[in-house]
Amino acid sequence: MGKHEFEFQIDKAITAVVHQEFMTLYWPDGSVSRFHYQWLRENCRSTERFDPVTKERKALTESIPSKLIASEIAITGAEVRIKWSDGSAGSSFEMNWLKCNSYDMAAINTKAPQQLWGCEYRTSLKSFRYDEIMSDDNASAEMIATFEAFGLVRLTEVPTADRGVERFANRLSYVREIAFDRVANIRVSVDPDTLGFTNTELPLHTDCSGYSRPPNVIVFHCLQNEVARGASQYVDGANVVAQLRQTNPEALQIMTDYAVEFRLWSKKADTMSMSPPVILDERGELALLRYANWTVQPLKTVPFDRFPDWYDAYRALAEQINAPENRVSYRCSPGEMLLINNHRVLHGRDAFDDGLGRRHFQQVYMELDDLSGFRRIVEGEGGAK
Question: For 136, which DSSP code?
Fold first, then answer.
């Protein structure tokens, strides 16, 4: 060991090695966690630095000395106690807390992996009963967890009452209001603002690309569907990105490199954003997809010599999106409700003939942050740990 390192046994299963700037813990399952002293001080749960009632940090991160070290470490049962070199009040940490909050383990990312799907999801679309979701928090939490993983779920036996979709949203969190209608009526209009209010084909797309942060949950509620044809179409954008990474990584890189202008407007609103069509998260998975051809404005931000490459990359993305093996075709029935992750799942609609009946959906937007928070609270994981 080095000059400033020493080893001790916390119990029969856990070993700690103390270094100059950090401490290492060897866990019973064979995993290893390292903790910088500055991180430990920042996350100290003493009442001087952390409010036990509100679960909020009181100490300022910038107040931590940059050369902070542990002057003394003591082990008491399953707890580590630290005295600090700057003479300030010491800190103590439960081993279980350190294990749960380790940031140095390969599998530390607690975000559930995306469950990718293609056309086969048509026969296994995850479904939940509306009455259970409206009355049972545990059933709601299960539905939300499934939605987090798949990005598309169905509710059945939904009453076809007006604005029922709003009541559903308010049961779990809130309606995300935008410049357009709070509750949108998706039906043929005599004076349409958009193709969605006609009976023509609606190509695959994501909504609200003109917003700097589009709402990431769409809730569709089918009230009437008596028309001929008009099936809804759904494609998992996360699956598309995974395929493109394998078949054409250069195209995927271009789609993430250059911000372009997206704009969506109506008679009473005008929204505009600058963003790459594809945004990936820290794991390389899809975080946000903007795809609505009619919202892309004339390109001005792509370097002149890369224009042909950009168009080739966009075509490659479109080809994967529109591949039949990636598409779920589903005709909604009255009394069904669909939740769609608008940052991930594209939706569209076939043309239909409304000569023999009506097609009427109501729609609201929500935020996945709110739904995930509801789930965490139900599962006992709400608040600071």
Answer: -
Options 3.30.470.30, 3.40.50.300, 3.40.50.150, 3.60.130.10; CATH of 119-378: 3.60.130.10
Could you tell me the pTM of the whole model? 0.83
Do the beta carbons of residue 90 and residue 84 sit within 8 Å? yes
Instruction: Say whether 216 sits in a helix, a strand or coil.
Output: coil
CA dist 75 → 8, 68, 82, 94, 337 (Å): 9, 20, 9, 10, 55
- For 149-167, write each residue's pLDDT tens digit: 999 999 999 999 999 999 9
User: What tokens were used for 109?
Assistant: 């990312």
Residue 383 Ramachandran class (φ > 0 left, ψ -120 to 50 alpha, else beta): left
* Class level of CATH domain 6-100: alpha beta
- The kind and range of the H/E element at 204 are strand 202-205
- For the chain, the structural domain boundaries read 6-100, 119-378
